[in-house]
Amino acid sequence: MTESSAPPQRLTRKGQATRERIVQAATDLIAVHGVAGTSTEDVRRAAGVSGSQLYHYFDSKQALIRAVITRQADAPPIPGQPMMGALDSFDALRAWADAAIERQEQNGGRGECTLGSLAAELSADEESHEELNQGFLRWQALLLDGLGAMRDRGELRAEADLDKLSLVLLTALQGGALLSQTMRNTQPMRASLDAALAYIRSFTPRP
After folding, report:
1. Is 47 buried (19+), middle (13-18) or exposed (0-12) by CB count in 10 A?
2. Could you tell me the end-to-end alpha-carbon distance of the chain, in angstroms, rounded to an integer?
């Protein structure tokens, strides 16, 4: 990552607000037009900044895209939802899945600028790969922590492979979202998340 893709250490409050406005404008435009269809000039106009202001914070489009990736990686896995509490029970995981499905229903299959949609467009871009990978690892860690707490309480069997289970949940979310957006209905996401949760339940201790 270039130095300009992260906030300078001595940004003023006004500078921080300007930088955030630029990143937000880029995020909004990418949601509609994708990365390829969004130019730095589009972002400049949408953010209401000059060219020199834009390049003060981001010396290239790639630096700006990396900042968007980092921003979305820090966002909740379900767009539009606050960061949910610990996903450390079957009820919490069910609520997490239901919130994802509800968001998809509300969105009506329209595209969004999420970590998943960025990955779909930038998967072949080596310059973006590490930021995308770290973002997904961060989301996986949220699931891993919750599953670990469940195993510690005896709600999952000791031999449960938590790395695998957390990947199952994350893949169900991302794959279900992509297919639901393509098919313009929530059935793929509902099916993938229901199957993932059923798989997690298969690791409950036997009577």
Report:
1. buried
2. 51
* 141-177 confidence digits (pLDDT tens): 989 999 999 999 999 999 999 999 999 999 999 888 8
The answer to whether 177 touches 189, Cβ cutoff 8 Å, is yes
> CB-hemisphere CA count at 13 Å for 19?
23
Query: Alpha-carbon distance 61 to 98, whole Å?
Result: 36
| Residue indicated by tokens 């937000």 | 24
**Main-chain dihedrals φ then ψ at residue 88, nearest 5 degrees:** -120, 30
User: Which residue ranges form the domains of the chain, and what is each CATH number?
Assistant: 3-73 (1.10.10.60), 90-201 (1.10.357.10)
SS3 204: coil
How many whole angstroms separate alpha carbon 143 and alpha carbon 171? 12
User: Taking the model in full, what pTM does it have?
Assistant: 0.73
The CA angle 38-39-40, to the nearest 5 degrees, is: 130
In angstroms, rounded to a whole number, what is the distance separating the alpha carbons of residues 99 and 78?
7
Length of the chain: 207
